[in-house]
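ok so heres the complex, two chains, lmk if somethin looks off
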Amino acid sequence: MPHEKRKNLLLGILSWVLAVLFLSPFYIVATNSLKTQKGIFVGITSLPFGEYFSPSNYVEAFDKLDFIKSFFNSLIITGTSTVVIIVFASMAAWMLVRTRSKLSTGMYFMFAAAMLIPFQSVMLPLINLMGKIGFLNPGGLIFMYLGFGSSLAIIMYHGFIKGIPVALEEAALIDGCNKFQIYWYIVLPLLKPITVTVSILNVMWIWNDFLLPQLVINRPEWHTIPLKMFFFFGQFSKKWHLALAGLTISMIPIIIFYFFAQKHIVKGIAQGSIK
Amino acid sequence: MKKSRFWFWLFVGPILLAFLTVVIVPMLRGVYFSFAEWNGISNDVNLVGMDNYLRAFQDEEFINSFKFTAKFAAVSVVAINLIGFGLALLVTQGLKGSNIQRSIFFMPNLIGGLILGFVWQFIFTKAFDAFGSAFDIPFFEGWLSTTGTGFWGLVILMSWQMSGYMMIIYIAAIQSIPESLNEAAKIDGANAWQRLLNITIPMVMPAFTIGLFLSLSNSFKLFDQNLALTRGGPYGSTEMLALNIYQTAFARNQFGYAQAKAVIFLIAVAAITLTQIYFTKQKEVEM
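and the predicted structre for the whole thing:
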C-alpha cells in the first residue's frame, strides 16, 4: 500500500515538526540562560559556547532565588496540603456516600456547585477574614488549600466510593470495628487508585499556585518557588541572562517529577476531567 | 442513631469547616461588601447601595476588560480544542514515536502560568525581535507592545500550554470508541475523512463538553499568565477581568468597587459555563 505508507510518512514528519515546535521555547530559554547578557543581545539562536558562555548565571540565580529554601517551602506546603486534603476529603466523601439522607445529598451538591466559584470572587473577603483570625501564614495557607481543594477531591472520591460494595464494611462492623477503624483499615486501602489521581491533581495545582500564597504569605522566608520567582523577575527583568537561569531552575523540579510519575499524571488528568 | 450522627460530623466536619470558612462565608460577605465603600481591612463599611454596580457598568475600563476577556476566551477556546483534538488524532495513528510526542505535547501544562508567562515574554520580545530583524520580517517585531500582539501573545501562550491537556482528554475518548464501528464503516467503503466526521467526532462529543468547559473557564479566569506576560499593558488594554479586579483592589485600594466587579465576574463565569454545558450536552450521542 504505497498510498498508506506515504500518508504515514507525512503524518510522522508533521508530528515531529509539531513536537519540536512545542519544545522550542524550552530550548531557547535553556540555551540563552547559559550566555552573558551581551551573548543574548548578539545572537539568540547561537549556542552558548565561546566567549559568551556563562554558567555562573546559575550560581547567581540559585543564590538570589534562595532556591534550597524556596524549594523546601514549596515542598512542605504542597505535601502537607495534599495529605490533609486526601485524608479529610476521603473521610467526608465516604460518610456522604454511606449516609442516605437529604442532608448528605445536599452537602454533596454544595461541594459540587462550588466548583463554579472563581477564586477572584472570594479573594478580598477571604484575605480580610483570614487576617482577622491570624491565618495569614503557612499554616493558614494549608487550611485554605483544604477549603479550596475540597470540592474536586470530594467529587472524585464520591464517584469512586459509590462503586465499592458495602458488604466488606458490614462484615467489619459485625466483627466489632468502629467507624474509624473501618475507614482506616478497610476503606482507605481500597481507595488507593483514586488517591493517586487526587494527589497528582492537587500537587500540580498547589505547587504552581501563585496568587493565593502571594496574598497569604508576607514573610520572605516562607516564599514558595513561584512567589520567589515573581519578585526575582521584577528585580532582574532587564537582566535576561539571570532571569532565564532563574526560570530554568524553577522549572526543573516539576519536570523531574514528570519523568518519574508520567504514567500516573496522564492517567490522573484523563480521569480527573471526567468528573 | 445518635452515635451515627456523631460519626457523621466527625468525618464530614473538618473539611466542611474549611470549605465554609474559605469559600462560602467569604462569598456571602463579598456580596455584602460589594454594596459598600470598603477599605479592605476594617469592618466598618459604608453602605452605598447599587453605586458600585452602576459605576462598573459605566466604567469604560471595566467594559473594555470584559470585552477583551470575552474575545480572548472565544478565540483561545477554539484554538486550544482544535489543536488538542488534532494532536490527539495524530498520536493515535499508531505511528512510531507517538508516546514521546504525547509526553512532549503535555509538558507545558506541568509548569505554572506565572513562569510560562515570563518564558514567553522572552520569546515574544527578544527571540521574535531577533528573528524579525535577521530575516527582515516586520511581523515579528515589537510583540507585546500593542494591544493586538498582546492579545495574540496570550492566545499563543494559552494554546501552547493547554492543548496538551485537551489532547489527553481526547485521546482517552478516541481510544474508547469500539474498533468494530470503524471496521464496519471501512467495509462499507467509508474513507478516513468520512469516518472522522461520522464516527470519531460524534463519539467524542462527551469529551468535547469537558474540553470546552475546562478551556472556557480557564481562559475566562486567566490571571497568572496575564500578569506575567503583559501585566495588562500597553496602558491596561490587555488587562483581563481577574487582573482588573486585582488591580482595582490592591493598586487602587477600591475594595468595595473591586468586590462588586468580583460578584459580576462570578455571575458571568457561572452563567457562561452552565450555558455551554447545557448546549454541548444536547449534542452528545445517546448510547
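quick notes: Residues 91 and 184 of chain A are 9 Å apart (CA to CA). thats all i got rn
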